[in-house]
Design goal:
Helices cover 23% and strands 24% of the residues. It is an alpha+beta fold. The protein folds into 2 domains: 2-256, Rossmann fold, CATH 3.40.50; 260-429, Jelly Rolls. InterPro entries: Peptidase_S8/S53_dom, Peptidase_S8/S53_dom_sf.
């Protein structure tokens, strides 16, 4: 399969310029110890880096509790999503691919069963699908990266089984039927349908930014993704540290990814760094953003490291970012320059300078797609009109290869009080 996949993707990219691929396949019998991946995932990771393409892979499906205790599909939800047997299947654990889990599009009960006491829903809209697989992926990184709609399941007490599409059409998504001569449309459920849903959102961004790298598209997706409130509420019974293993960064908002608006400004940059180097980006903060209600800064980073499954550490480079405020730029440069070569642990500045982004550093630094934010409601004028974003590239085993690591960075400033940020910041980008 890996060699066939390589040949197919290379051929489609060379002959037709294909930049987006969807792999709604998985090998549930391929068992690797946690943090390791197989040759299939490695091949896709290599292709994503070599060809600068987007490869979306479904996280995989598994019936609740493996289908052995159907009642527990309702009573033990969502705890069973974190079972070891429910880990993402090969090749969904890869580093440079985009892994997609599934959200329920609805509770799955249509009008014909609305008042049937023996039909019981497992989910409501925007809650994790009961069949979606969860992370972690290679090297302990967060998987899935994102979620999208993939259908759901319901419990039928009379039949003592979990019903899903196509047997129960309302539990699935409408799609074309492979047997189209008999029936043009059908209903299906699975992460196999969530993956192309997200790929479609990415295709809209590629149309909007035709020259964008795969890293930039991934960073834009990440910067627009949020976890639905329904999903957050349903996962409250689980350890908060495990939530991202179910939903990743969240559900993508394509319009938010593609455009700024009056009170929300999106910056982006594509760049590269030598290994064991850092870059500092100036982030202008207008006076209107320093007072007057809730304000949010969000930062997203995407990069495509070299990979080797024969190494103890799968990826050859690591990148991370820190948002610094109230600190002279010369001091920022000197602080990080003096710590070049100190290993993979990022240096920490004094708390008064280092913005406390969420998710925390330890939760995001292993990932090749990272997104974090900080919100303010108090006055922040004491920090001045300029923040600095430090991006650091740490070389692992790739230090021997003398490469530069490509990456993309997206930053969003949003003022929830509808302050006209865009008009204030756009002229400053031209200077």
């Amino acid at each position: 399969m890996p060699s066939q996949m390589r040949q197919t993707i290379q051929s489609l990219n060379a002959s037709h310029g294909c930049r987006i691929f969807v792999i709604s396949l998985g090998d549930t019998k391929a068992n690797f110890e946690q943090g390791r991946v197989g040759p299939w995932a490695t091949t896709l990771d290599e292709l994503a880096r070599e060809l600068n393409v987007l490869i979306f892979v479904s996280a995989g499906n598994r019936p609740p509790r493996g289908g052995t205790s159907v009642e527990q599909g309702v009573t033990q939800y969502p705890g069973y999503l974190l079972e070891v047997a429910n880990r993402v299947c090969e090749p969904a654990g890869g580093a440079n691919i985009v892994t997609v889990g599934a959200l329920a599009h609805a509770n799955g009960i249509g009008p014909q069963h609305e008042f049937d006491a023996h039909i019981q829903p497992i989910t409501e809209r925007d809650e994790p699908a009961p069949f979606t697989r969860t992370g972690p992926g290679a090297g302990g990184m967060t998987k899935p990266d994102f979620v999208d709609y993939g259908g759901t399941m319901v419990f039928d007490a009379v039949a003592r089984r979990l019903q899903t599409a196509p047997h129960l059409a309302t539990a699935g998504l409408i799609t074309t039927n492979h047997d189209f001569l008999r029936q043009l449309l059908t209903s299906k459920s699975g992460t196999s349908f969530a993956a192309p849903m997200l790929a479609n959102r990415a295709a809209q961004l590629v149309r909007r930014f035709p020259g964008a790298s795969a890293n930039l598209i991934k960073a834009l997706l990440a910067n627009s993704a949020t976890v639905p409130e329904a999903s957050t509420r349903r996962l409250l019974a689980l350890d908060a540290r495990d939530h991202s293993r179910v939903h990743g960064i969240g559900l993508v908002d394509t319009l938010r990814a593609a455009y700024s608006d009056d009170h929300r400004v999106v910056y982006f940059v594509e760049d590269s760094l030598e290994l064991d180097h850092f870059a500092v980006y100036r982030l202008p903060i207008p006076i209107e953003f320093q007072t007057g209600g809730k304000r949010t800064i969000r930062v997203s980073l995407a990069y495509d490291p070299p990979v080797k499954r024969t190494r103890a550490e799968y990826i050859g480079t690591r990148m991370n970012f820190r948002l610094i405020r109230g600190c002279p730029v010369d001091h920022v440069f000197e602080y990080f320059r003096s710590r070049v070569g100190e290993g993979t642990d990022p240096p920490e500045m004094a708390g008064k300078y280092d913005c406390d982004l969420v998710p925390k550093k330890n939760a995001r630094d292993k990932n090749t797609i990272q997104s974090a934010s900080i919100s303010f409601s108090a006055d922040t004028t004491q920090y001045g009109g300029e923040y600095h974003l430090v991006v650091r590239c740490v070389g692992g085993w790739a230090m021997d290869q003398e490469i530069r690591q490509n990456f993309a960075l997206v930053v969003e400033l949003e003022h929830h009080a509808q302050v006209q940020l865009y008009a204030r910041l756009r002229p400053r980008l031209r200077t």
